[in-house]
Amino acid sequence: MTAAEHSLPRRTALPPATLATLTLAGFFAVNLLIVWALFLTSGEGKNSILTVAKFFGLHAALVMMLQLTLVARLPWLDRRIGMDRLTRWHRWIGFTLLWTVVLHATFVVLGYATLDRASPLRTFLALAGVPASLLGICAATVIVTVAIVSMRAIRRRLPYEVWHGLHLLVYCALMLALVHQFLEGTTFTATPLSTAYWWTIWTLVVVALVAGRIVLPIHRNLRHRLRVSAVVPESPEVTSVYLTGRDLHRLPARAGQFFIWRFPGHHGWWRANPFSLSAAPDGRTLRITVKAVGSATRGLRNLQVGTPVFAEGPYGAFTSMHRTREGTVLIAGGVGVTPVRALLEELTGPVVVLYRVRSVQEAVLLDELRSLAAARGARLHLLTGRTGVGSPPNRPFAPRNLRSLVPDIAERDIYVCGPPAMTESVVASLRELGVPRRQIHAERFALA
């Protein structure tokens, strides 16, 4: 793409992220109203407790569909909202799903216990002997299990591959819940209209999930046939990997985005890593620049030219698509400079780059940044030293220091990428300086 194509986007009534969020919320609200209408017309149970159980069952189905949509990796949503935010919403809505399922199951047991004048335990065991109910119990058990291992305290102690494998059980819960829904609930099959509605909405969600998570990645990899074209050591701990393939000019990647990379011949299929592009796509090659933090990333230096690569993406909303101002500030910390370096190559207008590292020796791609800044008339500030050391303490991202480095910072878009603590500190300072939220762009490049 040319520089003109990446100039300031045409101003519209709503920013892209807001438009996508409202579209998603509107779609959910419309379906929520439909579900309420179906409940009011055909949701009455055998007693009042079972009626409440049906209410929660209907909402559990709808929340599950929203959960799946958020992680379907639909390009239109991802480019506008970003995978990090969609994943964060998926996590919190997941706990809503958990409690909705638990309440549905609890009221079912209590309702039938009241109806049969039996104890809740005996009623639960009796329901487990009914195929439709057993499917629902199994689906609920899977959802509860996944919710437990997704709790922050437990999740941090699990390797990503283990957590991901357990999380895939949600798809089993999906299939079990679908069958349970159509075998058990009169609300789902009460009228031809309700049956058509549920089949239609479930079909749309499942098709979106399969298309975004399976069909699109396979199609792109078969089309582009990515392979390693060069491996370049940038420093003792940092390596750049260049990739080439077929028809890369048709790959809809932008500076600032990332892919989920798999190197099957290097460390197996299940090991996947999100790495940002460290250079703007030029239609011929892609480049990632990786810091060694473990055996897998360290071993990328040993990749052989010609090694096939499987990439999912591009993902992320950390792009110039979200610009609102002519001027831009790019703030990077450590290896978080990689998408910032790519954005610098693409952006037009006045640009200031703030690059935070402990020492000059740790500044990855510094020569490239200097060359790009000189060529584009951008200002580059290398901020070194340990935070809090010295008198006065070294706090480069304190509001006062940010304003000193960029006096008109409130009139620019700010892109921030770095360690979470640094990103949070920068965002807090920007808000203290009165920078509008819509001008702050920060994204976490991670799988979960």
From TrEMBL:
Record membrane topology: Multi-pass membrane protein
GO MF terms held by the record: 2 iron, 2 sulfur cluster binding; flavin adenine dinucleotide binding; metal ion binding; oxidoreductase activity
One family name in Pfam for this protein: NAD_binding_1
Alphabetical keyword list: 2Fe-2S, FAD, Flavoprotein, Iron, Iron-sulfur, Membrane, Metal-binding, Oxidoreductase, Transmembrane, Transmembrane helix
Subcellular location: Membrane
Domain of life from the UniProt record: Bacteria
Cofactor annotation: FAD
Protein's recorded name: Putative ferric reductase
Organism per entry: Thermopolyspora flexuosa
